[in-house]
Design goal:
Radius of gyration: 22 Å
Structural class: alpha+beta
Largest sheet: 4 strands, antiparallel
Strand order of the largest sheet: 1-2-3-4
Shape: elongated
Number of domains: 2
Helix content: 40-55%
CATH class of the largest domain: Mainly Beta
Number of strands: 7
Number of helices: 4
Length: about 180
């Protein structure tokens, strides 16, 4: 059994959000690639269509278009992180954090329990997706966009963290 009590910071929460967003951007899924290609085609049409109508497609315009495409491809990561940070700030301004500050997580053989100042939730291991060891925390993934975030500082040692990850991996159901 594992029992963790900790205070989650905005940086640790943003770390998970960043980790998840970067994972989605690098995802080989069809949906993400269709979206990326659609955006590039739309930008190409907006920039090149007027030139094609006038019959004056010149090398400088093509070079400009290529630079825009390269900039958007490289800048996509930074733009995504900027949007995520702005969303967190907007939610924070409304007076409600998208995460709980003080958390206790108890992992036993059958399920895990999350206890905060307002909730007590039990979750069966059968719905876990995977466990990731991020830069600042371990993320026990529950579905596509939710996770139990356990900061590295909540672990007594690196060995305990490795043992915990191995324990959770034995609880995650095999993918069919």
């Amino acid at each position: 059994m594992y029992n963790f009590t900790f205070h989650l910071t905005e940086g640790e929460y943003f770390g998970f959000t960043k980790f998840h967003a970067m994972e989605q951007l690098s995802s080989p899924s069809k949906g993400i690639w269709v979206l990326k290609i659609t955006v590039l085609i739309f930008i190409g049409l907006v920039l090149l269509f007027p030139m094609l109508l006038l019959g004056q497609v010149r090398i400088p315009e093509l070079i400009f278009f290529c630079i825009i495409v390269i900039f958007l491809t490289i800048g996509q990561k930074y733009f995504t992180l900027f949007i995520v940070r702005m969303q967190i700030r907007a939610i924070k301004k409304m007076g409600r954090l998208p995460y709980n500050l003080d958390i206790q997580l108890i992992f036993d053989e059958e399920h895990f329990t999350e206890i905060t100042h307002v909730t007590k939730t039990q979750t069966k291991y059968s719905i876990l997706e995977k466990v990731d060891d991020g830069h600042d925390a371990v993320y026990v993934r529950i579905g596509a966009v939710q996770a139990a975030i356990i900061p590295h500082t909540a672990f007594e040692s690196e060995e305990q963290k490795r043992d915990f990850i191995a324990f959770i991996n034995t609880k995650i159901p095999p993918k069919v």
